[in-house]
Amino acid sequence: xxxxxxxxxxxxxxxxxxxxxxxxxxxxxxxxxxxxxxxxxxxxxxxxxxxxxxxxxxxxxxxxxxxxxxxxxxxxxxxxxxxxxxxxxxxxxxxxxxxxxxxxxxxxxxxxxxxxxxxxxxxxxxxxxxxxxxxxxxxxxxxxxxxxxxxxxxxxxxxxxxxxxxxxxxxxxxxxxxxxxxxxxxxxxxxxxxxxxxxxxxxxxxxxxxxxxxxxxxxxxxxxxxxxxxxxxxxxxxxxxxxxxxxxxxxxxxxxxxxxxxxxxxxxxxxxxxxxxxxxxxxxxxxxxxxxxxxxxxxxxxxxxxxxxxxxxxxxxxxxxxxxxxxxxxxxxxxxxxxxxxxxxxxxxxxxxxxxxxxxxxxxxxxxxxxxxxxxxxxxxxxxxxxxxxxxxxxxxxxxxxxxxxxxxxxxxxxxxxxxxxxxxxxxxxxxxxxxxxxxxxxxxxxxxxxxxxxxxxxxxxxxxxxx
Length: 468
Hints:
CATH topology of the largest domain: Alpha-Beta Plaits
Radius of gyration: 31 Å
CATH architecture of the largest domain: 2-Layer Sandwich
Number of domains: 3
Oligomer: single chain
Strand order of the largest sheet: 2-1-3-4-5
CATH class of the largest domain: Alpha Beta
Strand content: 15-25%
């Protein structure tokens, strides 16, 4: 099955018909005959999507929606409202309560199933961002934001009269910025990056067959800068040939029928913006998590995990270009005494200042990472033995000659011992060979570091021979 869908409808015939349609499309339908049963089932085993009737025997569909959106477990489940009435106020109330789509009864199978596929695809993308995370830790059950800043809506059309009319009709009902773009401007100039609007409202009415609007929709969805924007196609929903369903399958977030009044257009755009911002937040959370996974929280340098992986890449690149690479392992001398005398907060401050001092003498292409404790990894691409030795000595003197001032006003003298290993040429062309050579370089540098520690500390020792 491709997804579980909870059908909440008090009419048995409606439930049976929907169940048959969804089962034929290989979904797993779950049936509830009342609002309270639907809420209970949604909480016990949250479905991938909910189909909700507005008229229920025990409570209204609006009450069910409001309760779903207030519960962290069900807040972000997409909901399609099915209404036997065609009242504009019912549709507006449903969107205001949190519906993602409102269809009249009966709804044509083509557009209904296309919308189901469309919403489930978006839900699966959200779920993928949290696939290996726990609820509430990585944003899965985050609180609904109390305030949403204004967004940017771009009306994409080459018809100036359409752009002016839409801006005139929508602006009084929206606090979001509304801009108009020609089709060429919407696709943008790859050599001139520009801010991407939150929502593109693409005018598809100029092409009776719908091909122009779908083509632009496909282009926007396939390009990196606009891939994650919300995209709506302004076209007839009841057009012949299934154009609306095709647009949903191409990735449209909604189809705005030109016959809709401004209030319903705005209600739909608000719903889309809410979903889009949820996806943005999840994406940012994942990016932050990935960044934090490779960053040392004390010094802000890359951590051991990143450092070893990056060194492997540098070694492989150096082998392909036949350039030398130097590896330095630096370890602070008697660092335990700093923690014992001044406390761990002072020790962390010393590590931060040491990281800053080391970073200040390195080039942009060099690698500096904290291996753990008071030990640092430095990798110098395109650097031969003599130059690497001078750099290590310069770093050693910088630490020796610049005491670190603590928050208490006391100065702490910090020195470090350095082990250096260099490979001038290698044949480590594959990733596996590069990884082996990187570990060998670190081992040689670490052995030289131990010699520096044993000989008297605060010195640079070069590995006995170049790594082969």
